[in-house]
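Quick one, tokens below:
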């Protein structure tokens, strides 16, 4: 969050909006594997829980090969757009897209494949240390932006993408090798496609909303909204981190033969604690922003109210980690209905407000809050349907 504030203090909203607007397309790169990485996220800890370590590592290596091919294709797409903009004389967009060639090439590795390999308590300790190093790097690399503005944003994005990839790959728990095993892909696809459908409702929803802001409000409005995105990224790391630990923990318990009620009981207390912490952070943060932002980031005052609302989006998803249980027991249909219903309701609210009152940044975090509350209520209410299931 601190690094994000430093960046937007240096560059104006339009410049930041133009750069981050191209970055919206990275959200689509994460869709390319079609569910195979999602299958690995379930099968890897499950097989470890059953004691099949060798087979689990083979699944990881096959997924490594597929991720490499998808990443190469993503880099080629960004390169094509860069060449196109160079040919039309738009050198600014051309250089931005050129920087995203590298970011696109490692994005799937950094955000999905490599973190999935860290599944045990020892692995989580390693991942935490790496996150601290990445956070320090985020702060130090602001120097690029301070020195060169928009071009510094491009350099910083490339440097941090490579740095994060090196850290995650160097400390990975398993030795990976290149293999294209279609039997593995079939297994992971069958296991992962329901998780994929469920797992990408919210990321795809967020990407669509960002596209709406960029297309309806323009680069300047998207730049102002950066303040809300910084807040969500900073506070949202709490529920994301809880989920990152609880999901494989549930899968390992299930692989060991634990019952559904036992798994829920073992994981509910941390989430209740998380809700209390996030609520306090949301209240304090929302109260402080109107005083802090005019002093530190006077160019972004227009985005303060949206950022205040965004403080409560992580609160609304505090119990979201329980939804991972649907993936563990392979009963994602009910979870999918919950997530889709919430995203539809949230988007409907945004569109209704837009057509009634016109464009406003406030309606987007408000829609997110409404949608995520709906998702959480439905997902938790339907958990009881899993109690008598024994599907592995």
């Amino acid at each position: 969050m601190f690094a994000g504030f430093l960046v937007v203090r240096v560059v104006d909203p339009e410049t930041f909006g133009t750069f981050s607007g191209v970055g919206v397309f990275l959200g689509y790169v994460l869709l390319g594997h079609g569910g195979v990485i999602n299958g690995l996220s379930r099968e890897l800890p499950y097989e470890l829980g059953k004691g099949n370590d060798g087979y689990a590592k083979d699944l990881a290596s096959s997924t490594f090969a597929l991720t490499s091919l998808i990443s190469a294709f993503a880099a080629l797409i960004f390169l094509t757009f860069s060449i196109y903009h160079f040919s039309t004389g738009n050198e600014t967009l051309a250089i931005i897209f050129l920087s995203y060639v590298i970011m696109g090439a490692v994005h799937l590795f950094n955000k999905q494949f490599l973190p999935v390999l860290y599944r045990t308590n020892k692995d989580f300790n390693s991942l935490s240390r790496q996150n601290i190093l990445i956070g320090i790097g985020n702060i130090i690399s602001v120097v690029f932006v301070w020195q060169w503005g928009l071009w510094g944003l491009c350099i910083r994005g490339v440097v941090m993408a490579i740095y994060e990839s090196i850290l995650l790959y160097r400390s990975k728990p398993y030795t990976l090798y290149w293999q294209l095993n279609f039997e593995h892909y079939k297994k992971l696809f069958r296991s992962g496609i329901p998780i994929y459908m469920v797992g990408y409702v919210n990321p795809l929803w967020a990407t669509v909303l960002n596209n709406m802001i960029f297309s309806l409000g323009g680069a300047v409005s998207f730049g102002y909204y950066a303040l809300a995105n910084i807040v969500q990224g900073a506070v949202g790391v709490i529920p994301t981190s809880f989920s990152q630990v609880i999901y494989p923990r549930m899968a390992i318990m299930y692989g060991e033969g634990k019952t559904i009620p036992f798994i829920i009981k073992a994981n509910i207390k941390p989430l209740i604690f998380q809700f209390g912490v996030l609520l306090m952070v949301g209240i304090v943060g929302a109260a402080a922003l109107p005083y802090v932002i005019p002093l530190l980031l006077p160019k972004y005052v227009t985005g303060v109210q949206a950022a205040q609302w965004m403080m409560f989006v992580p609160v609304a998803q505090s119990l979201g980690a329980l939804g991972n249980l649907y993936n563990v027991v392979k009963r994602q249909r009910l979870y999918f209905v919950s997530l889709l219903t919430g995203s539809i309701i949230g988007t409907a609210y945004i569109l209704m407000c837009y057509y009634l009152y016109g464009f406003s940044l406030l309606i987007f975090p408000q829609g997110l809050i409404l949608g995520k509350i709906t998702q959480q209520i439905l997902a938790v209410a339907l958990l009881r349907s899993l109690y008598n299931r024994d599907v592995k």
